[in-house]
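ERR on first pass: missing label on line 2. Operator R.T. fixed the label and resubmitted. Corrected input:
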Amino acid sequence: MSDMSVLSHEYKTASDLSQSISDALITLKKARYNVPGRETIDAEQLNRSRQDIAKILTALVGQLSHSGGQYFEGGDIVQIPGAFVGRLRTERRGDLAYYLDDLSHIAAQLQREPLQLSDDDLALLDHLATLADAEASRVFRRLMRI
Amino acid sequence: MERFLHGLLQDLERQCSTLRDHLATIATDREVSFYAMTAYQKVERVRRKTLQLLADPDLDKPEILPNYLQLYKRWNEEVRIVESYPFPFVERYAESDRQITRFCQRLAQQVGWPLPAPLVATFSHQYYWTVAEFNLICVPAIEGKMLLSQPDLCHELGHILLLAYKSLFVKEFLQALAKYIRQEQRRVKNEQRPSQYGPLYDHLLEQWTDAWLLEFVADMIATYLVGPAFGWQHLRLCMGNNQAIYHPGLGDTAEHPADEARLRGIIAVLEQMGALEAKDQIRDLWDRYLTVCGETRPPDYEVCYPQSLIELLARHVVKVCRSLDLRGFDQAQGFQGDIPSLLNEAWERFLANPQTYADWEHSQLEALWQELGTNQS
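pass 2 clean. output:
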């Protein structure tokens, strides 16, 4: 009945999204850059990260274009906070159609072999990670009344 | 920066250890041990992930640093949440909590609750709330034990059920909602609406998906479980606070949908389940309340809460609850000690004669606490 119940639910959605993007991006970056930790990533982990990000991007394209049917992939729910989508929509108001193309392009790239993500692709994914991080922090502060 | 993050991670690991050790030493009361263990496991998971990250050879790589920092924030938040919610629930569990927890367990058992019954605490200063992820509910110290307000406990149960079966409850509806917003946006494009409505519809969609849908579903699950008692309690709550009935409207931001729309959601479930007489009585009293308080419906209000969407959601929630084999109020047995029946009887008696109600409630609660094996009235 109080806002707490909804906020705790909202926080979980926002936090799960932020962690999914950050986790997957760390794996993708390790694979992309020649860093010592690259050897610790196995094929299964890399594949899972690619799938996770691709699902999020597909769901995001669906929500940004109000097509609704893209909220789910294979029966699973891909939860993206509406406030996150709203911020992105406001930010990309001038070039939303191009932005949707970019998101779809990266989602397709993630399914292809061999994995080829450009610096621009990674920068776009990093921006999503930053937005998801900001949204999770915003809801957390409201939940904890900080 | 890298060095500072390293220090923060070490600090987080230490805090996890401290919290975990506190949770481990809490007395093994059978009603709280499961919740203490859940919180323990959560903190221990964060601690292990933190240790793993501390050993990551790429922790100092500037290309990845922002993502490591994001993970640190989430883990730190998780620990703060365990410290703020599950920890005080289990550490301070008292006889008054046991009473209402057992009440909730009894209710859960009677309605065929498909999840473990939640732990309920009685120290809330924010009315009823839940942290569904941890299966915890908090209720006010006094009101939380009155029969008239117990339907609100069912609303919180609704949040917990929704989190566990989110896809089942919201998938179909979100598609209908997106379709509705598309239709409204088309009206803007066709110049049937001023262009400034475009962003308002986007905001409306955000409000529904992030917050209002959760509240409507929790209301509808509560109505499914206890029927008219939840409708009457909604009226009691509306009349007892000064929230505007039609707020939030188009362009407004709030975690809860408007009280008027919530009532329509409750009515839709009652109608769907055949409680037509009770539905009419609740609607009649509500209409009289609207006349007395004299609030007027703001422009575009109906756009926010279309009746067709509310009815669609009500039908769907009832269908999902039936598919989960939850016992609806329409299937209540009415036997002695049946809680949904007791809550409805309480409301019937209160409406019939508020003067004699208090004595009746007192005797019912005395008997109930005794039966549940708790020793405080």
